From TrEMBL:
This is Glutathione S-transferase II. Residues 14-98 form the GST N-terminal domain. Residues 105-235 form the GST C-terminal domain. Belongs to the GST superfamily. It comes from the Eukaryota. Pfam families: GST_C, GST_N. InterPro entries: Glutathione-S-Trfase_C-like, Glutathione-S-Trfase_C_sf, Glutathione_S-Trfase, Glutathione_S-Trfase_N, GST_C, Thioredoxin-like_sf.
Length: 264
């Protein structure tokens, strides 16, 4: 894929994204809309390791210099950034049959907003920090590791309790697959990166497997490039050995600071 230097489409939705938990929100939703309504879209891979998201042409679309972002060429070249804002926009404008969303006058709309806000303000930031302190930080800081892994673990306990007697996060009865689920999928799919085993949360694991059965979810996780791993796939080889070593570090950090799992 050539290095992007600007927008390439003149009609439809153009997605600017990378293979990250937030990036998958947009690609999965667009694949769902494509399958359900025939909505076509163009995408470009924005390699955040190369700093493309900081270039002037990109920050003209998203001043914050982050992915994902979309440009709706059929609606005055409207730019929308932040994954959850993209989910909201696409569902309002293109999910005309409310297949993945709810009518604003439906209480489930508000419930979906609540869980999407919970992801945006809680699970995403905490899991992101956990992953940083465990894997990316050059210095392994015990307090940071146990603090953020512990809070991520607590939040997964909240989600597991929510899904204990439900198939999906919101919706009547056992729930309906919706943007509330899509907002979470990319994050839950890489929870193993924090050393937290998804087997600890059986209801979350069952929900993730259920969502993975959807063709649009599978396709969305391949954009802009093939997914490297999933929480549902046991790690092997060097990856498994590294995960074991990192978990030992986290467990030692938890012990050092007297961490005890509790949720909520």
């Amino acid at each position: 894929m050539a290095r992007p230097t600007g927008l390439i489409a003149s009609k439809g939705i153009e997605l600017l994204t990378w293979s990250t938990p937030n990036g998958y929100k947009a690609s999965i939703m667009l694949e769902e809309l494509k399958e359900a309504y025939g909505l076509q879209y163009t995408y470009q891979g924005i390699n955040i390791g190369q700093g493309i998201q900081k270039e002037a042409w990109f920050t003209a679309i998203n001043p914050n210099g982050r992915i994902p972002a979309i440009v709706d060429h059929d609606h005055g070249d409207l730019a929308v950034f932040e994954g959850n804002a993209i989910l909201s926009y696409l569902s309002r404008r293109y999910d005309t049959g409310r297949l993945f969303s709810f009518s604003p006058d439906d209480d489930e709309y508000t419930r979906a907003e609540s869980w999407i806000g919970w992801q945006h303000g809680g699970l995403g930031p905490m899991q992101g920090q956990a992953n940083h302190f465990v894997r990316a930080a050059k210095e392994k800081i015990a307090y940071g590791m146990q603090r953020y892994v512990g809070e991520t673990e607590r939040l997964y306990g909240v989600l597991d309790a929510r899904l204990e007697d439900r198939d999906y996060v919101v919706g009547p009865g056992r729930g309906k697959y919706s943007i509330a689920d899509i907002a979470l999928l990319g994050w839950v799919n890489v929870v193993h990166g924090t050393t937290i085993a998804i087997d600890q949360f059986p209801s979350v694991k069952a929900w993730l497997a259920r969502c993975w059965e959807r063709p649009a979810v599978q396709k969305g996780f391949q954009i802009p490039s093939a997914l490297a791993s999933s929480a549902l796939t046991p790690q092997a080889g060097e990856a498994a050995e590294q995960a074991k070593e990192l978990k030992q570090l986290v467990d030692e950090a938890k012990k050092q600071y007297g961490y005890t799992y509790s949720s909520p």
